[in-house]
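Entry 14. Structure prediction run on the chain below.
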Amino acid sequence: MVLIAARCALLLGVAAAAWLAGAWVGHRTGLPWLRVGVTAVILCLPAWDVLPGYIAYRSAIQAHGGWHLYRVAAAEGYLDLREDTDIGVWSRLTGSSFRYIEIWSRRRPLSSEIDPAYYELSLAPPGSAGCGDGPLPQNVKVLQEGEGLGASCPAVQRHDAPISEFVVRSSAGWEDLPRSAWLRPLEEKWTRVEERSGRSTLAETVVLRYRPWISTLGFGDLIPPFVSAAVTGRSVPLNLAAVLKPGPAP
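Output returned:
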């Protein structure tokens, strides 16, 4: 209710200011068309940055948005800092060319034990050690069914330090791009494949957003933020298979 009241008050305030300014100009000049013009200009002021912001946003999409592949590398697996739990990781290993996916987690996978560490997750083939013909733990059976692992068994190795040469990580949220002197900043969300040493970025996918001034005041339903999406042809999911190829890391 408070937000609705504030929005109504703002709209009424802008309308009143536009009417009074137009009336004053029309009275002083005796030109009715100027009165209409001043009123229209003031009514449009809250949306002053919509057009220039959209132009800057579209230009940034062409220059910066979407999928960018800079280099291909060989890797048996990678550290995925987008994950802090093993849930959902196992199914990504099924049919994958990667031998393992590494995560950092406060809890030991397949257990409720608190043990912060890096964990190397892999799938053991049927008949291998720990995945024989004997009875499997109930939590493993549930995981096999829920993640579609078939007869493969989840295997976990704990490490105090990461073992992967390459890391996949995402921005924590929307981050400001360098702004112009008068427009609100464009924002980006990114996911990158990087060398863990930080020497270089192998690939990235970038989503861009511009929020006109009026949308930040609670009027996003009238003029919503511009967000790049698949429809632009410039924002696509991260394609790990195109970046990291099977094989030992250099």
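The chain has three domains: 2-47, 50-72+166-245, 76-159.
Filed with the rest of this week's runs.
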